[in-house]
Amino acid sequence: MTDDRRAAGAPTLEDVARAAGVSRATVSRVINGVRNVDPVIQEAVRQAVSVTGYTPNRAARSLVTRRADAVALVVSGAGVEPEATREAPDGGAAGASGAKEAGTSGDGDGSSFTAQVFADPFFGRVVTGVVNYLRPRGMHPVLMFAESSRAREEVVAYLRQGSADGALVVSTHAEDPLPALIAEAGLAAVLFARPARPVPVSYVDLAHQDGARLAAEHLLGRGCRRIATISGPLDVPAGQARLTGFRDTMARHGNPYIPIVEGQFTQESGEAAMERLLAEHPDLDGVFAANDLMALGACHVLREHGRSVPGDVAVVGFDDSSAALACRPPLTTVRQPVEGMAAEMTRLLLDRLARPDGPVTSVIFEPELVVRGSA
Amino acid sequence: MTDDRRAAGAPTLEDVARAAGVSRATVSRVINGVRNVDPVIQEAVRQAVSVTGYTPNRAARSLVTRRADAVALVVSGAGVEPEATREAPDGGAAGASGAKEAGTSGDGDGSSFTAQVFADPFFGRVVTGVVNYLRPRGMHPVLMFAESSRAREEVVAYLRQGSADGALVVSTHAEDPLPALIAEAGLAAVLFARPARPVPVSYVDLAHQDGARLAAEHLLGRGCRRIATISGPLDVPAGQARLTGFRDTMARHGNPYIPIVEGQFTQESGEAAMERLLAEHPDLDGVFAANDLMALGACHVLREHGRSVPGDVAVVGFDDSSAALACRPPLTTVRQPVEGMAAEMTRLLLDRLARPDGPVTSVIFEPELVVRGSA
DNA sequence: TTGAAAGCGCTAACAT
DNA sequence: ATGTTAGCGCTTTCAA
Fold first, then answer.
1. Rounded CA gap, A53 and A67, in Å?
2. Which of A97, A113, A140, B36 shows the greatest Cβ crowding within 10 Å of its Cβ?
3. Which nucleotide's C1' atom has the smallest distance to the CA of B66?
4. What distance in Å separates the CA atoms of residue B361 and residue B348, rounded to the nearest whole number?
5. Measured distance CA(A150)–CA(B170) in Å, rounded
6. Which residue on chain B is closest to A336 by alpha carbon?
7. CB A242 within 8 A of CB A274
């Protein structure tokens, strides 16, 4: 069979039609499950298909249907140019031997961005949610990164040339120009997280403020009196919202001023932030970190300083990512149902493709407190 | 412009040709950079392209070139059916509220596999390497998972219908039937890691045994006398090879018997293994873990038991993943240049696509000891 | 150096 | 219910 295909090219509809003694159109109907086909003929066609080893040619089909039956999953970065890595990259991969890495892989550029992206369990969860929704529908995501303006152009071009029918966009920073670019080009997309400036594109998001409120109330409820927070980057909407929600709740409970150190959602930045917090407020007894990675870093530092968690200091994280269970003790955290959100984002996109004139909608998920050992 | 495109459909070669006052063929030549085109006309065509906002239609092009200009990046799983998750999934995501997750995402199946895959920093690094090589060439990977026989069939079908020109296959377990399936179908692929049973397909791999030797020699060199190892899963070739390399070296240095506990390459399994090791050999002073995640887990447990690292027990990991730097103290580890290996794997595949009759080759990378704080 | 014309494999009217 | 036919947008001989 293999040899047949190689020698004569893959079998086409024509071949199947001939083998089954019917027309191409009929074969096409059977293959695409269009009704109005005599069951007997259907069977004959199926036989012919398996005899010939026929597989539909995607390009030919796409050319006429004008559908690629593919979607892009794009991780979008900051609004500016190929920025140099801010501080220490994030952890191992790029850190220890960055120079060698660039040399080995043959393409130094952009390396730090993709490495950074996958260092956070968050993206793996997004992929999981997207794939879970797509797979049963016979689709698979094309992975793209859009951290520079050049890369963003490429994403737009990719969609424009019909390589994918639409894009699932996950932005790592606010002010990301990609959503607007896509919208202007009249292309289909759905975002993970509300865009900083309004864009006529659907999105899914989490009620971050509510989540932070849950964290604050939990800390308060267990009797913490001197509470501090390690916020996310303040130029990221989610970072802002979590801080605002936390602060507001604390204020409402009579704590208008709380120590804040800004982190970058990385374990390292969490460690640095905790060091500072501890130096400036040695008496604190509760910490809310805006994500689990930073909470994990904070726990490490607390232990190094001989503070027990949650005995001396209670720690609450955010996300309920794999880092929460990896931590000792396991983190009490605010659960963000990333997989479900990603699946919903995918559903919204496919909906949109099916009905291009459907409404632009947004779905906001509710967070949930998960109590474990750390607070 | 947007409106034009919507109203009249995307501009085609024909439109550009008309605008430039030349034939479709000429426009095609200019766009594809074929020589023998009058510079003046070239310029005119370029003008027309930008005026019309033309973008080549990928399906049409693929139909005639018989190239998709796309490759699949497939993460392939065990040889058996949709196996139930072995033990605790891997960490947070699926753990805390797995039931709810399945409900939310609408598709319970397969979820654990993808989640598990991205829990290890390894895959993020593979993606980084692949993307770094592909991007400058205008290509992007289609992400696929092949953990069940059904999923494997889908991968083969995907390639057969020309959705991708070839596959980059990363197997998580030995005895993976996918490479053979692909080879039998006469499709192009390159593997990350040598297949368990020989298959006529190119691959990249690491000299695992040499890496383990480096670890053993380092431990021995710093004076450790009672050394144990936490191996990887023994049904994974890399796990086997690292154990063999370690054992052989130890034996050559007069230590024929060393305590071994098998892990699963997860942090949790590393913790469990370390607990056991400590219970059975309370006097050990050195540990080689077959990957960083397990080494990280081991370090946690050691600290919990009041053993200092590396003071009381020296720990060496493997991979030099982000986990190595996340660890306290940072891990001394054997570096596997995953990004470079993934880039090379990609290069091999594109080579193969360019010259289908080129030789099947394998490229073996040499590991390197990275000395940090843990040993 | 350029143009004309023939398909690539498929779907979707339209006819029957 | 089935067949006929006309393209989808592009590349690529083959002529000029």
1. 24
2. A140
3. C8
4. 8
5. 29
6. B93
7. no
- Can you give the distance from the CA of residue A62 to the C1' of nucleotide D7 in angstroms? 14
In chain B, the residue whose alpha carbon lies closest to the alpha carbon of A322 is B92
Structure tokens at B262: 């098998």
Residue of A165, A170, A325 to mutate, interface with B, max B Cβ within 10 Å: A325
**Contact between residue B196 and residue B213 where contact means Cβ atoms under 8 Å apart:** no
Residue B144 and residue B157: Cα distance in Å, rounded? 12
Q: In this structure, is the CB of residue B62 within 7 Å of any atom belonging to strand D?
A: no
Residue A357 CA distance to nucleotide D9 C1' (Å): 26
% helix / strand / coil in chain A, to the nearest 5? Answer: 50, 15, 35
Sheet with A368-370: strands ordered across: A260-262, A227-231, A286-289, A314-319, A332-335, A368-370
Parallel/antiparallel/unpaired status of strands A202-206 and A188-192: parallel
- B169: closest CA among B143, B189, B139? B189
pLDDT per residue as tens digits for the range A69-91? 999 999 998 643 444 333 333 33
On whether any CB of chain B is under 8 Å from the CB of A11, the answer is no
CB neighbour list of residue A38: distance below 8 Å, 6 or more residues apart? none
Chain B contact present for A196, CB below 8 A: no
Per-residue DSSP letter, A161: T
Residue B345's closest chain A neighbor by CA?
A105
Q: pLDDT truncated to tens, each residue of chain A (375 aa)?
A: 444 444 467 999 999 999 999 999 999 999 999 878 999 999 999 999 999 999 999 999 999 999 999 999 999 986 434 443 333 333 333 333 333 333 333 334 445 788 888 888 899 999 999 999 999 999 999 999 999 999 999 999 999 999 999 999 999 887 899 999 999 999 999 999 999 889 999 999 999 999 999 999 999 999 999 999 999 999 889 999 999 999 999 999 999 999 999 999 999 999 999 999 999 999 999 999 999 999 999 999 999 899 999 999 999 999 999 899 988 899 999 999 999 999 999 999 999 999 999 999 999 999 999 999 999
Identify the CA nearest to B139 among candidates A163, A172, A69. Answer: A163
Indicate whether this model's pTM tops 0.70.
yes
Q: What are phi and psi of A320, to 5 degrees?
A: 60, 55
- Contact between B16 and B54 under an 8 Å Cβ cutoff? The reply is yes
Average pLDDT on B188-212 reads: 96
Of A161, A155, A157, A185, the C-alpha closest to A73 is A155
